[in-house]
Amino acid sequence: MAAEDLATPRDRIAKDLEAVPRRPGSAKPDAIIVADHVTRRFGGMTAVDVHHLEIQRGAITALIGPNGAGKTTLFNLLTGFDRPNSGEWSFDGRPLSQLSAAKVARAGMVRTFQLTKALSRMTVMENMRLGATDQGGERLVPSLFPPLWRHREKEITEQAEELLARFKLDTKRDDFAGSLSGGQRKLLEMARALMTKPSTVMLDEPMAGVNPALTQSLLGHIQDLRDEGMTVLFVEHDMHMVRHISDWVVVMAEGRVVAEGPPTTIMQDEAVVDAYLGAHHDTDLGDDSLLGDDVLDELEAEAEAQEHRTQEDA
Amino acid sequence: MEWTRILINVAGEVFAPATAAYALAAIGLNIHFGMTGLINMGQAGFMLMGAYGFAIATMNGWPVWAAVAAGMAAAAVFAVILGIPTLSLRGDYLAIVTIAAAEIARYTVRSSSLTSITGGNAGIAGNDFKGSFQQLCPLPEGSWSLGPFQYSNCLSNSWWLRIVGWGLVAIGIVLVWRWMKSPWGRVLKGIREDEDAVRSLGKNVYGYKMQALVLGGLFGALGGMIYVLPSAVQADALGRTLTFNVWTILLLGGAATVFGPVLGSILMWTVLMFIKSTLRDMPGGVFSSTQAEAFSWVLVGVTLMLLVIFRPQGILGDRKEVMLDGR
């Protein structure tokens, strides 16, 4: 994959987003998802409280934030897997907030899960076929008459074979999905989601539990989705990945959107530093040398000093 | 011991109407549990709906086809009422609700205040509802023997009932075989594995589960009708024990297989009959016939336990498929 191929769509999107103000809830030139006043409370705890959020069409948007920031909850709300206490959002101009998860998927917004949901006791191919749309044989009575759906089944199988080849799972075609490795399951889940021919793909921690060898190929696949014109929204902890592939970053903390901006500058944002990254935002979080004794000592000293200050403040 | 008589008894169980009735109920349960993963602990309730629906409609002068439709409609309504509150909840709730609902149904039909309709505690005598079914019999009057097996052509425990019962089983097998191989069956299988994944792919999971619950219930209802036609309708014969027997049959034959329910039913009743007859005939009268009956049921319980521990996939199931846990 040559660098020039990737450069074009990414540069174009970067240009589109150039003029967007770097603040929470800023308007995008071509928003596909627009959410307003979305709140979700669990008992006394407010998990999500998003005033306004827009997601640019055709871009890769990363949703980051510390644990418990409400990223996955927001994901569940947007995809119909959870119901909000208040708020509404639209997808491609169509109000979506009251729809069931299945209808959201049929509208073109399909998701994957943090804990991969490969259907273990079905083969890889059956998993893929299940993702397909418009299969009349999925209705009770027509299913008894193969001539009614055999033609579509053939098309589905071809579509599935193409995707499996692209995700390098074609040799696993007839294996049970339960026999795949963690990374292969992630790939399968993504490929299965693409069987629905979505316009937006929502990936909940696509890198969790994936071995480093597969990470690179997963990143490539996600970028391919954007280059094909799909919108990608993903939750991730890995800063490398966020910087490497995203076009726009939305930072959540304590249920609210606290900052937005392009990945190159978002780490310098004051709110992000406060909320999430601490004082070491400009250091490489993936750098092993950070685990050296001297750095740890330094960190400990700083933490102590900070604690001291806090106590004095109080 | 009279081995010939014992073996004839055993062989008679292979194609007895009750065996067909259990097979039908297990085919229904296989649609619930094997195909969709719904844990229905009240299959007897669906059989009860079928049996009472058929018998009561017949007593009110309905023709056979309408009475059968009434029994099936009762089971479908029962399924929908159970399904509406429980199918949107997770797995185990359905098990609790179905076992409770089946018991409620049983207590309702045997209550003395409904004696004029359901016959209450005593149930409905065979002669009150068998007439129209027996009139449909195309065979000549009298009885017929096939080797050592002699049954009436049309009355009660008849050849006619065997033909209808096993005919229904055959239809059920063909339908389930088609459904399992179809995209519809694929969606059900996906739901069995992980319903959220299927939901995320745009399928109406609730609707599919409802279809499966109703469909399996309809087979249960047909099983219930065949179950009561040799004798009489009696509420207590349609209770928890019946449900557990149907589960044993399904697990014995193999859940999620096409022939599992039929093989399970045949095996269970022949083996049971073999043990019962052998024990009863033991020299020296070690077992009285009541003791033999009870002891053979103890063995059924032990078999079920051993089966679940050592061969969870049943006789026909694919061990590889069962052992992969849904991580």
Helix percent of chain A reads: 25-40%
Main beta sheet of chain A: 6 strands, mixed
Distance between the termini of chain A: 56 Å
CATH architecture of chain B: Orthogonal Bundle
CATH structural class of the largest domain in chain A? Alpha Beta
User: Which runs of chain B of at least 5 residues are low in confidence (pLDDT < 50)?
Assistant: none
CATH third-tier fold name of the largest domain in chain A: Rossmann fold
The first-to-last residue Cα distance of chain B is 53 Å
Walk me through what this model shows.
The complex is a heterodimer of chains A (314) and B (327). Chain A is of the alpha/beta class and 314 residues long. Chain A has 2 domains: 3-118 and 180-282, P-loop containing nucleotide triphosphate hydrolases (Rossmann fold, 3-Layer(aba) Sandwich), CATH 3.40.50; 287-314. Chain A is 39% helix and 20% strand. Chain A has a 6-stranded mixed β-sheet, sandwiched between helices. Chain A has a 4-stranded antiparallel β-sheet with strand order 2-1-4-5, with helices on one face. In chain A, helix 4 (124-131) packs parallel to helix 6. By secondary structure, chain B is mainly alpha-helical. Chain B is built from 16 helices and 2 strands. In chain B, a hairpin with a 2-residue loop joins strand 1 and strand 2 (149-152). Chain B starts with a helix and ends with a helix. Chains A and B meet through helix 3, helix 4 and helix 6 of A and helix 9, helix 10, helix 11, helix 12 and helix 16 of B.
